[in-house]
Amino acid sequence: MATGHTDPQRRERILAATLDLIADEGLAHVSHRKIAARAGVPLGSMTYHFSGMDELLREAFRRFADHIVAVFDAHLSAPADRDAAREAVADLVHALSEGSQRDLVLTQELYILAARRPAYRELTHEWMGRSRVHLEKHFDPDTARQLDALIEGLTLHRALDNDPHDRALTLEAVTRITTGRA
Questions:
Q1: What is the CATH number of domain 1-50?
Q2: pLDDT per residue over 3-29, tens digit each?
Q3: Where are the alpha helices (DSSP H) in 27-52?
Q4: Fold category of 52-179 in CATH
């Protein structure tokens, strides 16, 4: 593996190390020095590849959003009818809530950052829009917006609850939103 400026994977390693560090220690503990050490790159590489911490964080969180949108796509691209789409949404909630603790932490760290800084709010807005595109393949735009919020809320509640609700309750919630009935 090349280690000089010609190292084509250096930028990617920096982005991955940034997300790993945020997931492990929280955004408050992120620094150029810690990221460089975790990525195995010289500290000077940080400013060579990114104009500052803000650009690095935006790009890293953009990559993370791409990952979550791909999870949406994996669950919502196949359903052939609305009933199958409802089942897929329930499966998505359970996959997200039972999946990577890293993804859960990164999602919350991004939301906190977006609550404080408008540039990151734009990133979360883009992410929500991209997620809704997948939901709008099966549901009208208003229902897709409601489902997107439901997915986020149920995922968080299931992931953090000592006794998370079962799939039947998730499907009932999805059904209520998509049909107006249980």
A1: 1.10.10.60
A2: 445 677 999 999 999 999 999 999 999
A3: 32-39, 44-49
A4: Tetracycline Repressor; domain 2 (1.10.357)
